[in-house]
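Q: Here's a chain of 147 amino acids. Please give me its 3D structure as tokens.
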Amino acid sequence: MEIILLEDIEGLGKRGQTVKVADGYARNFLLPLGKATVSGGAGARVFQEQEKRRKARDSKMHKDAETLAAELDKVSCTIAVKAGEDDRLFGAVTAADISELLKKQGFQVDKRKILLEEPLKALGVYNVPIKLFQDVDARVKVWVVSE
């Protein structure tokens, strides 16, 4: 049976590809879970409509992310924490803390989009990367100061 993949499936193909699979695999797994559609007739038209809507949605999200990135690049946040000797923090500044700081300044950024390799554990100035969309990144300057 020939099907059009609606999402990437490892070992089978990428989204939008037409592949030939066993009838049972298509009928019992791919089609009921919405991972594929039949390639002939109405299935192809449905896929094209979905693809058109997805591209329009992605285009809008990309523009919104670029606008937000331009605003976030200008933002500087300051967080005051308790620190001991050698400017080491008692605890750490995490992505959730940075998300809360941004929320107080009027920016809604999910903590999972803040790309910290590890929590900030020392005083200083950090440029924290934020992944807003597939190829749209922003950097926020975070000042970690002693209380």
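Q: Can you summarize the key feature?
A: The two ends are 66 Å apart (CA to CA).
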